[in-house]
Amino acid sequence: MKLNKLVRNLTFWVLLAIVAGALLGHFKPAAAVQMEPLGKRFIDVVKLFINPIIFLTITLGISTMGDLKKVGRIGGKALLYFEIVTTLALFIGVGVAALVRPGAGVSTGKLNAEKVGEFTKRATEFSWGHFLADNLTLQVLLVAIALGIALSKYAGRKPIIHFLKACSKYVFRGLHLVMLLAPIGAFGGMAFTIGKYGIATLLPLGKLMVTVYLTMGVFIFLVLGAILRYCGIGMWTFLKYIKAELLIVLGTSSSEAGLPGLMEKLEGMGCAQPVVGLVVPTGYSFNLDGTTIYLSLSTLFLAQVFHVELSGAQILTMMGILMVTSKGAAGVAGSGFVVLASTLTAMKVIPVEGLALLLGVDRFMSEARSITNFIGNGVATIFLAHTEDALDHEMAVEALGKRLKPLRLRGRKDLTSGEYLGEVAEEAAP
């Protein structure tokens, strides 16, 4: 019976695929590199579902919410939350880099600066105007908000809402079928990464790799864990709940591959649909905790490699630049390198050619960035749903499979009427 349950478990197959991909990449690198299309095509197919899901979730959520002031309040609180948490991530990255000094003693003798040119060119071409114009997800978000507001004021909206609900049901049904292919995508992504770059590429920059992973682990369990504890939920409990999506993100190195599943899981644990629809897609552009940590660590790493002792004013300048440039990272191809190149170019102190040192290991660190970004957006949604009295405690208990710590809410609020539907349990599990 247990074996049958294991065979039917998607998480098991994704994990098995990641291990198989890593082994193929190590022992047969040439064959493994040919597996790249498997990972890319899977991500491309999943991306087809992202904008329809965002559109339907937000439109339905706002049109049935009733209180439009609440929409504005949730959006404003989300942006404030994103700024505070990403700034904290930035300070943590700078602090760890200054303490550990991962760039000390790294040789620059084998720099290959040729490939850096394309990233520095993109960095000079990047602008917020292009970011907003080219970011289809943000455009869909704005259209969905406008349509949701219009429908909420339209008296004959019922047939339209029924139609959109039917569309939503079929979109998610299609997504579930596609996710059955997740092991293939994870296998292709991991095989390509190990086959192309090899484990040996990690050794010269091993200290940086370890520093990045440990820093993001500390951020997840201490900072994001504290935020979740405020909501009465433990971090391990939440990670177990989204483990399948986390493995997909790990295998594909893309947080977008897990976005639709994350939105569905958050609704399934009681986060109100409007909150999920507003916070998650916005967070993918403006709440990039992992990317922020990586950028701050990498900038100081390169300064240490080239023996550039940054003054306090220069570090503050760097942090100010990163606070702005990191917000647009999700809308740029090769985002980590592009934003890093733009930061180094703006500072004019650290050689941009130093990016060549990171080319070989960036792919391995992208898993840490993607997973941290992914978890960060899930935590942000739970926190904002909690503070808006839009987290159904009973659904959370049922979904997470255990009693939760007492929530600091008067009860579960109906977002349409604004009335409380019942009291939240006051005692935690023994």
From TrEMBL:
Q: How does it sit in the membrane?
A: Multi-pass membrane protein
> Sorted alphabetically, which Gene3D superfamilies does this protein's record hold?
Sodium:dicarboxylate symporter
The listed locations are:
Membrane
**Entry's transmembrane regions:** 48-66, 78-100, 136-156, 177-199, 211-231
Q: Keywords in UniProt for this one?
A: Membrane, Symport, Transmembrane, Transmembrane helix, Transport
PANTHER family registered for this protein in UniProt = AEROBIC C4-DICARBOXYLATE TRANSPORT PROTEIN, PROTON/GLUTAMATE-ASPARTATE SYMPORTER
> Could you identify this protein by its name?
Cation:dicarboxylase symporter family transporter
